Target: Major facilitator superfamily (MFS) profile domain-containing protein
Amino acid sequence: MFGVGDIIWVPLMRVIGKRPVYLLAMLGLCMMNVWSSEARSYSELLAARICSGFPAAAADATVPAVVADMVPAKDRGHCMMIFHLALTSGLFVGPLINAYLIQGENWRWMCYFLAIAVGIVFVVAVFTIRETSDIKRHNSDPSRKRSHWEWMSLTLGFNRDASFLRAFLDILGNATYPPLIWCSLTISI
Model:
């Protein structure tokens, strides 16, 4: 689900905006981690972990899109390097933290820890993460400055002209491009 989640998140982000997608994904990830920590069988744990991949995938879509919205083209490579460095570092630091949690408590605390961390980030994001989609189509008076709470609106990024189905089909079409197929196969192997 982590690998295919962006097929849904990217078109949704183009239609309703990045902020609602980001918040929805974090809320879903928090709930999936709570479900994982409460699993009573291996099958239930496996289902919860598979389902948690779907909301976790949204980070792969939202962060590069926000960087593209907020950072000039000449500086994007630097910002994306920081994002990918943080993402990759988590693959090495996460297991170390999890080892201490599991050793000191039990495996369920790994999932509780993730749920707590995502929950805290969700609360912070509600008050700090603004919509970064193209605001020109929403702002009839460019001299007017938006207030903080106007930037926090969940409807600011809504694009009436966007089509979920069209964006979905565009992604599937792009996925047949030979260099993307090669990258996908290389990474998946």
